């Protein structure tokens, strides 16, 4: 029975670490979020962090998963207009956490290596986002489309990821506005939307 309690405490501690790391990275930035700083916020040693995550890359990958879980809360069966709005809301929230955007961008490049701990995360995340966007574009087969839903989803995702890089260099880039305009061009809204 003690084992089950220890397991629950370990899971709770892991979640606390992830939430703290997400906060530290969001506020201080990826470059300024060392294992030592994250450990201090949680009240553990850097070695304890590695006990839970194995490496800094695995911790940061888990941080991105946690961020995605926050973003996806309550986005079950949404109408196309609601899905578009939810996607734009995520982009708006990203402008409030530049450190997390930087972490995402840096890890995405590193994850191109199939051996990197974040490789699988990005494959799964990209597929999930494309499926969600394509589903929103595929709501009415009689509507005019510029591209097929899968291609539109790839274009929207590629532009969103690329805009994040531009925004990190030029913070006045209107990521949500540009993405909304792109989505409206690729899939013009109906009069009732």
TrEMBL record:
Matches recorded under Pfam families: TetR_N
DNA-binding region in chain numbering: 34-53
SUPFAM superfamilies: Homeodomain-like (SSF46689), Tetracyclin repressor-like, C-terminal domain (SSF48498)
Keywords: DNA-binding, Transcription, Transcription regulation
UniProt-recorded Gene Ontology molecular function terms: DNA binding
Domain HTH tetR-type: 11-71
Protein name: HTH-type transcriptional regulator RutR
Lineage, broadest ranks: Bacteria, Bacillati, Actinomycetota, Actinomycetes, Micrococcales
Gene from which the chain derives: rutR_2
């Amino acid at each position: 029975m003690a084992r089950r309690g220890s397991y629950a405490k370990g899971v709770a501690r892991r979640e606390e670490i992830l939430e703290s790391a997400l906060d530290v990275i969001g506020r201080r930035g990826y470059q300024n979020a060392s294992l030592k700083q994250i450990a201090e916020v949680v009240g553990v040693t850097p070695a304890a962090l590695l006990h839970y995550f194995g490496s800094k890359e695995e911790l940061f990958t888990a941080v991105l998963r946690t961020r995605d879980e926050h973003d996806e809360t309550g986005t079950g069966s949404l109408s196309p207009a609601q899905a578009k709005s939810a996607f734009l809301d995520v982009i708006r929230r990203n402008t409030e956490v530049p450190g997390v955007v930087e972490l995402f961008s840096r890890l995405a490049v590193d994850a191109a290596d199939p051996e990197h701990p974040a490789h699988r995360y990005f494959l799964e995340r990209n597929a999930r986002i494309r499926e969600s966007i394509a589903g929103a574009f595929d709501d009415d087969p009689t509507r005019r489309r510029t591209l097929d839903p899968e291609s539109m989803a790839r274009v929207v995702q590629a532009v969103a990821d690329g805009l994040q890089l531009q925004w990190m260099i030029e913070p006045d880039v209107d990521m949500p506005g540009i993405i909304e305009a792109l989505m409206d061009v690729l899939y013009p809204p109906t009069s009732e939307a």
